[in-house]
Amino acid sequence: MGSPGSRGRTVVSGDGSRAEVDAIVLTTGFEVGATAPIARRIHDAHGRSLHDHWGAYPRAYLGMSYPGFPNLFLMQGPNATSGASSTLLFSEAQARYVADAVCRMAAEGIRALDVKPAVEERWTRRIRRRSARTVYETGGCASYYQNDEGVNVVMWPANTAEYQLRTRRFRLSPFDVERGRTGAGRPLHPLRPVRLAATA
Predict the structure, then answer these.
(1) Mean pLDDT of the chain
(2) How far is residue 38 CA from its own chain's centroid?
């Protein structure tokens, strides 16, 4: 019995069996929130993983940015997906926000954006306060939305339209900004804001 590995196009499993493959797809299924695998693979400048920073309480400003991890924008991060409407609406809102941020960086010669700790802390306090009054934490039901202490660390605790409006346009003020040369130095045109229809 060896450890899993690969030799060329042959994948060797832990029990020694082999299979010829063209591609390997890694999926995480419902491993989200406090156990999200991505948090163990992203490290700050001092070598600490995002998981080390989070512990049992995943958190991020708008569910996307965490202090000490410049230029990190998570998709479907902590408390930034829906249990009541389409997850696609959150993905689209986040994609537009991130694209707007990248365009702004290119246009203004910004090398790095790092969300301010006080901004993230205020955001997280608001999320925790609102989440405590929702079905995600009341009624005694346990789910993968919660950490071991019963705190909702996955679902957005308000209506979808509010999240769409909060992420409609990237704002620079919540971030510490480092300016410098970026990429090829060719400015991109910022995305035009899009009017979003209110949804449940």
Answers:
(1) 84
(2) 9
Residue with tokens 């999926």: 27
For every residue of the chain, DSSP letters joined together read ----EEETTEEE-TTS-EEE-S------TT--GGG-THHHH-B-TTS-BHHHHHTT----BTTTB-TT-TT---SS-TT-B-SSS-HHHHHHHHHHHHHHHHHHHHHHTEEEEEE-HHHHHHHHHHHHHHHTTSTTTSSS---TTB-TTS-B-SB-SS-HHHHHHHTSS--STTEEEEE---TT-PPPPPPPP-------
Cα dihedral 83, 84, 85, 91 sign: negative
Look-up: residue for tokens 């060329």? Answer: 8
Phi, psi of 70 (to 5 degrees): -60, 145
Q: What is the pLDDT of residues 74-88, one digit of tens each?
A: 988 999 998 888 889
* E-state strands within 61-180: 110-115, 175-179
Phi and psi torsions of 71, nearest 5°: 65, 15
The predicted-structure confidence for 51-76, as pLDDT tens digits, reads as follows: 999 998 999 999 999 999 999 999 88
Q: Which helix (H) or strand (E) holds 165?
A: helix 160-166
Q: Would you say 149 and 56 are in contact if contact means Cβ atoms under 8 Å apart?
A: yes
Which single residue is written with the structure tokens 């591609």?
23
